[in-house]
Design a protein that fits this description.
By secondary structure, the chain is an all-alpha fold. It is built from 14 helices and no strands.
């Protein structure tokens, strides 16, 4: 696993430190299930598909019905049932690809923002199974970063995010070769946190968080060097964001 990919999954662990979503770590623990030689079942309605333990390979039509229902319903009970069905079906490699091709990852990913903890957990379980597929991992790690960026906009979350224990590989998100889209999200995360730090009058030179925390990584010398290097990045937006953060060091 590359440093950037590893860092993307480690980023999910920040939410644990913030106390916002205790199951995000499951995104790093994909499991392979399948090989039963089972074919798709006959077409049924989306509601029928959620009526029991439906854990076999589904066809594209069935999965599309489930995704449409998930995207259109506000009923928490139905939402949970659909997520359970999708999570079970996503344990099979063929379904992992179909769900991605149907645009299902963002639909499932939106549910991790739900205030309902049970819905949040079931969405994360579905993403966990979907993440076994390498192509899916790319889409899921932008989804995870988006959630963390949203959290970082809330000053009340700053303390939890900064105190979260994070592996040093997290800094690989700021490497110049990382896709610009991911770099911009990672930089926005840093910028939001940095703005909250400055607003609270906290001095980066006098950290109050332990070694290994997000604070110690973001305000450490290695990150300073990465921000300076991004100041000459070929992407103008990346360069601008990196420059806006650098003066705080």
């Amino acid at each position: 696993m590359s440093g950037a990919r590893r860092a993307s999954w480690l980023a999910a662990g920040l939410i644990l430190g913030a106390g916002a979503c205790y199951c995000v770590y499951r995104l790093t623990r994909g499991r392979r299930r399948g090989g039963r030689g089972l074919g798709p079942r006959p077409a049924r309605s989306a509601e029928d598909l959620t009526s029991g333990s439906y854990d076999d390979v589904l066809n594209a039509n069935q999965l599309q019905k489930l995704l449409y229902l998930l995207d259109s319903t506000d009923d928490p009970f139905i939402t949970e049932r659909v997520l359970v069905t999708l999570g079970n079906s996503a344990a099979f490699s063929v379904n992992q690809a179909i769900i991605r091709e149907l645009g299902g990852i963002p639909i499932v990913g939106k549910k991790i923002n739900s205030p309902n903890q049970s819905i949040k957990e079931k969405a994360l379980n579905a993403l966990n199974n979907l993440s076994v597929n390498v192509e899916n991992q790319i889409k899921i790690k932008v989804q995870v970063l988006k959630l963390i960026v949203n959290l970082s906009e809330n000053p009340a979350m700053t303390e939890g995010l900064l105190g979260a224990q994070v592996d040093s590989a997290f800094l690989a998100l700021f490497d110049s070769h990382v896709a610009a889209e991911i770099l911009l999200r990672a930089l926005t995360l840093f910028q939001n946190i940095n703005n909250c730090v400055k607003a609270e009058g906290r001095q980066a030179a006098q950290p109050s968080f332990p070694q290994g925390s997000l604070f110690s990584l973001l305000y450490g010398e290695e990150c300073v060097q990465k921000m300076r290097a991004l100041g000459s990045h070929h992407d103008a937006d990346v360069k601008e964001k990196a420059a806006a953060i650098t003066p705080a060091f």
